[in-house]
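User: Please fill in residues for this 375-position structure.
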């Protein structure tokens, strides 16, 4: 039987689930309070310079999941792109993630891979056997010098607290390499959508059974008129924050323009705590196949998220996890509402994981509703 489903949020989760259900014959309404689809992946061509801008900060697509890679390529051409991040620290520029070049440059050495491994192990705090905090993880794997140069200041700025209060899992996102591979990610598939993420998501949403409504908030009463709701907004927001607010970091982007090439790479991090921004993004380097004389840059600042700010990074410290567990209990009691995505599940999710979860979620819905599975 055809269901009429409401997707709250036109980001990746809503688009991917919506498309799957639409292809199975269900009717989908997708609403977003913003004036564009794509959520925080939104890209926009700057009218003055022609540069494709990552409006809510840099997004680089990378995955090991072949089906997800195939999925995104069905809707947009992905061109090869490797994320090569640099960092400025204590008056010098280094290569990230920490690799053999970083180690040799930082310590003034000419070490080969095996020598560097032994050398860095000598710097590491080997008394830490089971690192739980960000700081312990750093001290155990790269030692104090590299930790203080590249991670401590950046992390204090990014998260607004001491790295001793953050889980080791945040740092585990970054590898340490004993070769000259400076690809930030270690995934089989990596690329950039030729025309941006918004174009890709608009194409995912381009289906006769999908109706997109922008600039339109959703009230609970309206939601009750649908057979099922997939909610990708903040989980606490669905419950009117009745148990309190889950903590997020928000970002401020200070745009500046430049004629020519300002920094020679897409992302330059700033490791020093006394530089107020965490990184500078030069958007045109995300599309090296394009040519623009003008350049659009963002200085990125992180701060605590207020009620009217855009939530970016879930904080997920102990207090938040307890509060989240209480909201999850409320969520379980909701009939016909599924909470999805980064905000709906309050997790730090990469785009590929978001798509994987959305595909799984959409399929589970179809399986339990007896609809035919799309090929
Ligand atoms: N990080 C750091 N220095 C850097 C880059 C990252 O200390 O130059 C830390 C920081 O705490 C950050 C985490 O490593 O939150 C994960 O980095 P990633 O680049 O994955 O962050 P994202 O791009 O998702 O903000």
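Assistant: Residues filled in for all 375 positions:
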């Amino acid at each position: 039987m055809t269901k009429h489903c409401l997707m709250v949020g036109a980001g990746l989760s809503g688009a991917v689930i919506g498309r799957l259900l639409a292809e199975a014959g269900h009717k989908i309404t997708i609403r977003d309070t913003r004036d564009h689809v794509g959520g925080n992946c939104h890209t926009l061509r700057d009218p003055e310079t022609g540069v494709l801008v990552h409006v809510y900060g840099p997004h680089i697509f990378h995955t090991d999941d072949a089906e997800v890679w195939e999925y995104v390529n069905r809707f947009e051409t992905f061109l090869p792109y490797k994320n090569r991040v640099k960092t400025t620290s204590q008056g010098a520029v280094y290569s990230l993630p920490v690799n053999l070049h970083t180690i040799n440059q930082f310590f003034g050495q000419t070490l080969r891979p095996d020598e560097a491994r032994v050398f860095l192990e000598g710097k590491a705090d080997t008394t830490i056997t089971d690192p739980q905090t960000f700081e312990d993880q750093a001290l155990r794997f790269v030692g104090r010098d590299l930790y203080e140069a590249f991670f401590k200041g950046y992390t204090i700025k990014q998260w607004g607290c001491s790295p001793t209060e953050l889980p080791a899992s945040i740092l585990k996102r970054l590898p340490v390499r004993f070769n000259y591979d400076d690809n930030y990610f270690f995934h089989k598939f990596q690329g950039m959508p030729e025309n941006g993420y918004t174009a890709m998501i608009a194409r995912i949403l381009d289906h006769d059974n999908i109706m997109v409504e922008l600039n339109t908030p959703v009230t609970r009463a309206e939601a009750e008129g649908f057979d099922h709701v997939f909610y990708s907004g903040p989980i606490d927001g669905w419950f009117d924050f009745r148990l309190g607010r889950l903590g997020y970091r928000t970002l401020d982007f200070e745009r500046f323009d430049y004629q020519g090439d300002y920094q020679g790479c897409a992302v330059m991090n700033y490791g020093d705590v006394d530089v107020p921004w965490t990184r500078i993004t030069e958007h045109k380097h995300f599309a090296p196949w394009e040519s623009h004389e003008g350049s659009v840059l963002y200085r990125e600042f992180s701060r605590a998220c207020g009620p009217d700010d855009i939530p970016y990074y879930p904080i997920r410290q102990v207090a938040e996890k307890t509060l989240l567990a209480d909201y999850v209990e409320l969520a379980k009691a909701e009939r016909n509402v599924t909470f999805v995505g980064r905000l709906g599940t309050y997790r730090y999710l990469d785009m590929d994981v978001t798509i994987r979860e959305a595909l799984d979620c959409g399929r589970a819905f179809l399986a339990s509703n007896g609809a035919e599975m799309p090929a």
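For context: Residues 22 and 208 are 8 Å apart (CA to CA).
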